[in-house]
Amino acid sequence: MNQERLNVVLREMEKQNIPQIVVSDPASIFYLTGKWIHPGERMLALYLNVNGDKRLFINELFPVHEDLGVEKVIFNDTQDAVEILSRYVEAGKPLGVDKNWPARFLLRLMELKSNCKFVIGSNIIDRVRMRKDPREIELMRQSSRINDLAVGKLIELIPQKYTEKKMGQILLEIYEELGAEGCSFDPIIAYGANAADPHHTPGNFTVREGDCVIIDIGCVKDSYCSDITRTVFYKKVSDEAAKIYNIVLEANKRAIDTVKPGVRFCDIDAAARNYIEKAGYGKYFTHRTGHSIGIEVHELGDVSAANTDRVEPGMIFSIEPGIYIPGIVGVRIEDLVVVTEDGCEVLTGYDKNLTVIE
Ligand SMILES: [Mn+2]
């Protein structure tokens, strides 16, 4: 167990008056133990109590041989895993459970521990995970560095006129060569009008003269995720598309300039959104400005109008405004930033000036 992180989690549990939690998210278990366990549909749970009690419940099919600094309770497929877990849960006390814990486990535990008050417990660890420590920040830098190289290689390949789908497949090889573990999400490669769909699935489309090309990709390196979006144009760019590009670019820069400790997430969103609205494209900026990122590509902490939380040093999130004109063009420019003591450091290094590929 990472004692430092565990202590912060236990303090946060006391602060939120949740004396015991069942952690089931493999990413949070990795965060605390340093070990990835992917149990599929089997139960995996790390029980934590502010009184110091802690146990890892794990199916014997996923043996952990090393000492993780936490007592293991092993069960097999013929046993009632939730019943075993329930024996260790303190009766009559609030119990926090993960936001994604399957109902088949949760409902059974609620039945067995009907005198416990069940609450969402994952906010505790998710909040702690928002503030990255120096080691994590360095891993995020490395992941972004690889991603910068990868996006550059893909942009160089645009004149080869591969389909969007093929570009996604080539990206996997690029990541492999660069030493990444894989993609942090399904890559988005979109040509022309396809780029107007922010979550376009790459298909059998090829690039045509005058198309915008959105490349939104991320890798996982040493368990930390990167995420970048660049939009370039093939052969030529219309005046309208160039205008839209520069509006998005300015919105991206204005949002980044806003980032410093104490500023609210919604203020960062507003910096980008107000600029795009004033330019007359407000209704075409259809999504939040960004999301937190770390061990998972989307973590707690939206950069959105609805999030009034204040940013703190160590937090890492994306700034990715976009303008999408259905049937015509889409532009999105995404960087990752880490909040520093007096501003932010941009983790993404790839050039973002208007580029026309020959
Ligand atoms: Mn993103």
Automatic annotation (TrEMBL):
Domain Creatinase N-terminal stretches: 5-130
SUPFAM superfamilies named in the record: Creatinase/aminopeptidase (SSF55920), Creatinase/prolidase N-terminal domain (SSF53092)
Pfam families: Creatinase_N (PF01321), Peptidase_M24 (PF00557)
Highest taxon, organism lineage: Bacteria
GO MF entries: aminopeptidase activity; metal ion binding; metalloexopeptidase activity
Keywords for this protein: Hydrolase, Metal-binding
Residue span, Peptidase M24 domain: 138-341
PANTHER family per UniProt: AMINOPEPTIDASE, AMINOPEPTIDASE YPDF
Protein name: Peptidase M24
